[in-house]
Amino acid sequence: MTTLSTYLTIANNLTKYQSIAAAAPSVSLQTKYYQANIGKARSIDEFMNNPRLFNYAMTALGLGDKIFAKGLIKKVLQQGVTDPKALANTLTDPRIKAFAKAFDFATYGTGTTSRSQVQTDIVNRYIEQSLETSQGQLNPGVQLALYFRDHAPNVTNMFAILADRKLLTVVQTALGISPLTSAQNIDAQARLLSSKLKISDFQDPKKLQAFIARFSAMYDANNGADGTVAPATATSGALFAPVTFGISTDLLMSLQNLKIGGL
Question: Are residues 8 and 114 in the same domain?
């Protein structure tokens, strides 16, 4: 199956696939522990000093790569999100701000972990992340597509894309931009992306789906799924090499029959 057809199968039957992910022994075990103990964490220290709770929450919000950045996360939680100058509001990573909003001890104090956003939403997000990870073991492109579907609508500026490796990979692949552009000045990269896409499009389900379809086609082409490789991804090529690739008949039919169901 192509990346697009697999992604559409999952996206259009999301509840089914989430249930399968939730039932996996490793996921089920961690979720049961989180649900039984998160309400007992009444302060930032109690929350962060419990590795199983903290790691679960971080993973749920896509921050698994920052689990060891406890100093940064503690400052984020201590400052909350009310003050525009708070760390969570000045960092470009939207995942960190989402984490600060969920675990807003600065506002809700000891009642923070009793909120539905912590009790229910975090569990749902953890299951979604587990689904993405399991799919990534079969096809990294599908994992990226699911991740983009989940996170791109929350992006508010180009710097947020540049700060998130997965989002940036999807955007670069879809637009045929060489990863070599990441060596450029950050402002130059932001200007480049701004010239090629509108952030607001990701908040429109149809436009978001179309962009993911474009990424999926390019991903398969770049990775030889259709027997060809796009020169734009070659490290020896120019930064903006023209993109030429073959797309199978099945993929073209998938694109024509693109659905929005489940999104």
Answer: yes
Beta carbons of 153 and 201 less than 8 angstroms apart: no
Residues of the chain with pLDDT under 50: 226-263
Residues 30 and 111 reside in one and the same domain: yes
Q: How far apart are CA 137 and CA 126, in angstroms?
A: 17
Q: Are residues 164 and 108 in the same domain?
A: no
In a 10 Å sphere around its CB, with 0-12 CB exposed, 13-18 middle and 19+ buried, how is residue 146 labelled?
A: buried
- Residue 254: predicted pLDDT: 45
Q: What is the pLDDT of residue 93?
A: 86
**Residue 203: domain span:** 140-256
Residues comprising the chain, all counted:
263
Could you tell me which residues come within 8 angstroms of residue 152 by beta carbon, excluding any fewer than 6 positions away?
Answer: 167, 170, 202, 208, 211
Of residues 17, 18, 11, the one with CA closest to residue 125: 18
Q: Give the per-residue pLDDT at 255.
A: 44
Q: How far does CA 64 lie from the centroid of its chain?
A: 11
Which alpha helices (DSSP H) does the chain contain, by range?
Answer: 3-11, 14-23, 25-37, 44-48, 51-60, 70-79, 87-90, 94-102, 105-108, 116, 122-136, 140-151, 158-163, 165-175, 186-196, 205-222, 249-256
For residue 224, the model assigns a pLDDT of 63
d(CA 207, CA 213): 10
pLDDT of residue 225: 58
Q: Locate 236 and state its tokens.
A: 């020896």
Give the model's pLDDT for residue 226: 41
Residues 6+ apart with CB under 8 A from 102: 57, 61, 117, 118, 121, 122
